[in-house]
Alcohol dehydrogenase, propanol-preferring (Aliiruegeria lutimaris), 327 residues
Amino acid sequence: MRAMVLERQGEPLVLSDLPLPRPGPGQVLIEITACGVCRTDLHVVDGDLTKPKLPLVPGHEIVGRVRAIGDGVSTLKQGQRVGVPWLGHACGCCRYCREHAENLCDAPGFTGYTIDGGYAEACVADARFTFPLPAEGSDAELAPLLCAGLIGYRSLKMSGDAATLGIYGFGAAAHIMAQVALWQGRRLFAFTRPGDTAAQDFARRLGACWAGDSTEMPPEELDAAIIFAPVGALVPAALRGIRKGGIVVCGGIHMSDIPSFPYEILWGERQVRSVANLTRADGEEFLALARQAGVRCEVETFPLGEANIALDRLRRGQLTGAAVLLP
């Protein structure tokens, strides 16, 4: 099979021919039809996340069809359309798994980081962490739901019942969660990198009641804010924009250092929370909710061999919506 391989962090991916993997017990072989390009992939490639398996096939927003089934798998069928997310394995026996918090597992496996992922024509995946996908929607449009959507949804849940919601960083996750939040009846305020009028226009087109630079204060106090951009300086900025008792949710797996800030902007029982990975329950809830809310992903597709171009476009902030690779 063809695959884009990360041989060393900080270097471009290499188009390679690899042996077709075989599913072991509890696994399925998936013929990949689309794989989203996530900011976490960029953190892996650029070296912000420092412990990948190498060489590595990145990618964890995988859509494809089941082509072979390993021993002991009874939940999936040949030919079924499925999705594979970031959390590709959990031990099932640590305190977090026992407490239904498998997203915090002490011995996890992560697709496209510690497990070969979806920048390829095929992959193997743990059947327990593989989601059946609905019949509706194209493969490319479904792919971003597998991480941008899932992590966004967990972030949205952590924001509580916020009626006025700020989103910092209006990329793949934000444009999905904006649709869910607006469907739920929330009022949305979008914050982008300074001068990114294209992203601001995109947010307004989706239904945001205000969009502006992340250096600006919102026109009114917010009940909560979600930060998708990996910029630590946005934490004190968001704290200044929320009301007493409000919540700031950090929705990324990596963020630059948070600068010091005066206690007074945290005081008043404001909260700062982080989101770590996802659970299978998150996936089941969100995929059902996305259908009800009529979520549509805006995507730009690239051939598999142009993965480096897609990553660089993401790195430079030159994408509207989400990038998706088509093998």
User: Anything to note?
Assistant: DSSP finds nine helices and 17 strands in the chain. The chain has two domains: 2-133+297-326, 150-274. The chain has a mean pLDDT of 96. The CA atoms of residues 41 and 275 lie 17 Å apart.
